[in-house]
Fold:
Amino acid sequence: MKVYEKIFARLDELNMSQSELSRRTGISTSTINDWKKKKINPQADKLVAICRAFDMSLAELLGDDETENSSVDYSAEERYLIECYRRSDDQVRKHMLRYMELIDNVEPNEMKTPQRNVAVIQDVDGNNIVVINDIIFKGKRSITWSDVEKYLRRYVGEFYSIAETGDIVYIGTDLPDEYTGSNYTKHIKGTVAKAKANAAQAIPEIIEIATSKTVEENKKEKHSRNAKNGWYRYDTRFALPVYDESGEVERYNVFSARLLIRHAASGKMYLYDVLEIKKETSKPCQV
Structure:
């Protein structure tokens, strides 16, 4: 049975109309009707929404019979994604589906590559500092962390190299939520909260300049898989502008911070949070 045939069989099974499927998925009724009329399968980016509407897994919808798959009119890239899903274990499949859900929930304008005004400079001692030239999260009383979370979703799936060690650090689906909702984040206020929120603009650079790697064992059962091989901490630094009454940049305040990186069962390293953010008491940075 082809994928589009399974969809209409499921509609019959649930006694669900095409209009209701359209309402639940956001896919137009004309598109749904075309699948049956033209005997074509839906595009791969529609599958997650369809599975959610039908309360079924992607594996159930796609099936495992290879003779069926030979007739599915997907591109080579779409077939590759499906094969990756099929040969993964249940835990990896959950992460893949979570990633697709995050993408599916991001507004089109959020998918655009963020315009970042960021640079790496060296202080008088030759140490790197990531200079963030814009303050985009400006809560007068408190930070709207949901906005920061949306911003961080743009990095999910990317990876960056730490220059000092050559370590590759991935950005997983858990970073946006942990970065904005961790116990550390909940307890910071004022300048430090504003610093962490705006440091989100420079995730690639604060990873790349990280130094002083330390290792610690995983001690919590809840992280027995996603940090099975323990944790790493690195030092990093960044600077944010301070404006005068006329709105002109008066100086830059420098902050030190520690990157918390989990070492997953897969052997990959993932950025988990940015902690211990402190304003340096030395002379402010002049750029």
